[in-house]
Amino acid sequence: MAEKFIKIQALYGLLELEPFVLLGCLIAITWVFYKFFLKEASEERHRSIRNHFRTLLRHYIVLSFLFLLFIFLQTSEPQIGTVAKITPYVAIVTFLWGNVVFVKTSRLIVLQYLFLGSMKHGVPLLLVNIFSLLLSIVLLFWGVTHVFGLQVGPLLATSAAASVILGLALQDTLGNLFAGISLQLDRNFEIGDWLEIVSGIQKTTGQVREITWRSTTLVGFSDELITLPNRFMANATISNFSPPETPIVRSQVFRLAYGENVELAKQVLERTVAGIGEIRGIPAPWAYVNESNENWIQIKIIYFLDNYGSQFNVGDKVLIRGIEALRAANLKLARQVIEFSDRTVNHEHGKF
Questions:
Q1: Are 315 and 279 contacting, i.e. CB atoms less than 8 angstroms apart?
Q2: Are 124 and 210 a contacting pair, CB within 8 Å?
Q3: DSSP letter (8 states) at residue 309
Q4: Which residues contact 18 (CB under 8 A, 6 or more apart)?
Q5: Mean pLDDT computed over 324-340
């Protein structure tokens, strides 16, 4: 019965010891790559990769059992007639399971390679999923042709009309998919980057959490989840506030009473702001006078951050500690002054 659907000799030729050993060696090489090149990955990334390896190991153990069972049945086939009926089915299950292990191993290799460029925040699974899908499709077509003897070319040609209908039905989904691929190829942002997305009058700010087939997920300042379709992202204006080696510039102003020691105030503010842990030491904070009038002298302190998301918390510390430091140095802060003039109206002459 199996001979009608399966090219048994071709299938048995694929299930030899050499491909099984090579697959095991590929898994071992993947593990060595992880141990030597991903030592500096974050703990969250280590847990993720180790989970992938545990899953892969379970699949390889199942494959080993199926392969040994196939070898046993194949060697017992001449002696036991009943075994001959089930051996092809065990072989096809072993072949399919081997393809699954190969796809998972290749997927893990690609995932680890991408981790090399982003060990801190991780990588989007979109590219890895697309690679796994394409590899699975290639193996499926190859297996159908060599094991089942079916010609895939004519089958694809006759399904052209169905493909057009399916493409129209999935127009939005495919648009988001290809937009997501385009965003990843351009690499304008990565997971963990702080973005400001502007489209018309709509503006969204958040940190990239995940990039999927359909959408990009951000986490806002209040820890709210923001999901934006990839097509929307591709057509919007995106400002990235997390480029490497480029700090975030922020400032705060302080108003001193007119006549206070300006140089001392600048030194106090620079020293105080430099002592806040989230603020970069290089470039160092610096202060200057940017405005003055008869009531006050305004000093602006410039400082630099690495994390865009911490700007409000750091700004609060700069303002509070700056005021406390100025008061501790006996420097008087300015107050709003409103002067009233007492004038008498001369009704007789109609003048003030």
A1: no
A2: yes
A3: G
A4: none
A5: 81
